[in-house]
Amino acid sequence: MCSAILSASAFSPCSEARAHDHPCSIQLSGGTMSLTALARNAKAALLAAALLLPASAQAQVDPVVPDDPITEDIAVEEAAPAAPDVTPAEDGVHALTKADVDAWLDGFMPYALNENQVVGAVVMVVKDGEILTGRGFGYADLETRKPVDPATTMFRPGSISKLFTWTAVMQLVEKGEIDLDEDVNAYLDFKIPDAFGAPITVRHLMTHTAGFEEAIKNLIFEDPEKLMSLEDYVKSSIPARIFPPGQTPAYSNYATALAGYIVQRVSGESFDDYIDNHIFTPLGMEHSTFRMPLPEKYEGLMSGGYNDAADGEAQKFELIPAGPAGSLSSSGEDMSRFMIAHLNDGGPLLKPETARRMHETIDQHTPPLNAMALGFYQQNRGDLRSVGHGGDTTLFHSDLSLFLDKGVGLFVSFNSSGTGGGMVLLREKLAENFAERYFEEARIPFEPRLDTAKEHGAMVAGLYESSRTPASGFAALMRILGQTTISVDEEGDLVMPLGATQLRWREVEPFIWRNTQMGMRMAAVMDDDGKVDHITFEPVSPFMQYLPTPWHRSSSILMPLLSVALGALVLTLILWPANAIVRWRYKTPFALSGKEALAYRAVRVGIILVFVQLFLWFLIFQTLNSDLTALTAELDGQLRMAQLAQVFLYAALGASVWNLAMVWSGARSWFAKLWSVVLPLAFMVLIWFCAVGGLLSFDLNY
């Protein structure tokens, strides 16, 4: 849930910063910040605020994972009894047995938890309709040293919740009560505004192609008394439509919440009741709920959610009004029952043809990369077919994979954000290692670099912005601060920064690259003019694209200009009293009088007022630093004050133009004339930045 995945993105997101109270927040305190640091931390906070991120949609650094099984003793459950034989076959593929999986997990998990400072985790493997193994590692409660019990300990699977929502939708499709290609407004008691001359359909919701901007307001609460209902959320938080429906994948929690509300409207049951009655009860999922606050009967079973093991303090239960998108609490064994149902052609939840429709209807926008199915997304590895979903809250990080042709499912959930921000890649590595250990089809042979690598790399290199992005209100600042640079090294490999590390990609087919560290693919789709239409890469390719950044939003243009503009304004303010002190020291009279003097002083007062406006925005980000749950209507007053203060910026620009006229009409020095030109240019750059970043918007939705 906490994806954006970026990526991540996009708004996974839990990205590049950690505050003392919250795993993903703006760290602006502690002295004067450079513009670069301010941008970095604002970026991290806005990414973090986009809770409910899908798998690997956040900017992350490399996790610490073992290459080979080890025996280091960490505070975890007792290891499974020693396997009598875990020797791989001649081709290196191991037999998928409980003994072998347990032995492998005993090598992988304790080390990974210890090195990444994770308090606890659960891993479930199902095969041929049964639970092959269920393992708890570490603690559900660090203070009491309560171990993780895969049967009863409840985790927060984040956006994996969406699979339950999509299953509910398909149940109603099966009954003829929902048409996937019907305008969603046909099922609502309010209206999604028209745009692009085409309606949003239920299919668009399921494939994340509705075209909504990233919506971050009202995504998380801590106070149960302030928690919005699902109905209030979907009616009050309608995001802007920024892409034509069906055209551009852009992951949307709001879209899933809207689908959940449609389930509620069509079925006549509340969403929570519907899931209880039509999914949990038929599957015997007795330790699962979407309800918030957490029902009292589950309080003793819920795992704590932690920043990391060193911090050691369980955080508050996250309340998510977009419940269908990510509010599930569930035990490992219950998640196994859900996996088994889908591996069993949907039984008893769906007819076989409906389940296959969910798993096999592919909405491909960037072949041959993994794409969206109906709610699930492809997680194919090599020639191994797999669908699934990942999920993140700010604290829990989970992944679910169904190896459809093998009758095998894998679920993992960690109850901590850990250190270094590598939890998303850690769970990806777990799934990758599992697939390669047990299925030969998942092994990717070495692919040589193409001779066209340098040529094609040069065509793709540039600055990109995620399709999963806020475009309204102050959160639109992410479109500037969240851009990704792709460069080419001397060998022709693409290089993409990701957190504190870099991902490298080797071209193995024309305009298709393979990641040299983890085997993921990247692809570029070129237009008829030979320019990039979009790029994307696995695992975010099903639900997100990276689009070339237009020049007017380019951070490579805006940020240097902004630095120079702010520098000019600060220097002007510094020189104002400095010159006055010099005149006082040498008893020199002020050389200006009348309108010239008034214009001179007006522009400097204008600069002060502009910095007042910027300070109001600073206070807003400072609020988010300590409490990301402030992204609600309670922030509206502060936002409105900062928005109204934009009049200072326009007034300062007007004063600087007046000052320009006064300077050039008099007998002033060449430096005075030059500086009189610099000041209005500086204000225009600031207006440009604020306009593109949404700081001049009067929109209270974001």
Automatic annotation (TrEMBL):
Keyword Ribosomal protein: no
InterPro entries in alphabetical order: AmpC-like, Beta-lactam-related, Beta-lactam/transpept-like
Gene3D superfamilies per the UniProt record, alphabetical: DD-peptidase/beta-lactamase superfamily
Source species, domain of life: Bacteria
One GO MF term: hydrolase activity
Domain Beta-lactamase-related: 115-423
Record keyword Hydrolase present: yes
Keywords assigned: Hydrolase, Membrane, Transmembrane, Transmembrane helix
Pfam families reported in the protein's UniProt record: Beta-lactamase
Annotated transmembrane regions: 557-582, 602-624, 644-665, 677-698
This protein's name: Serine hydrolase
Organism: Hyphococcus luteus
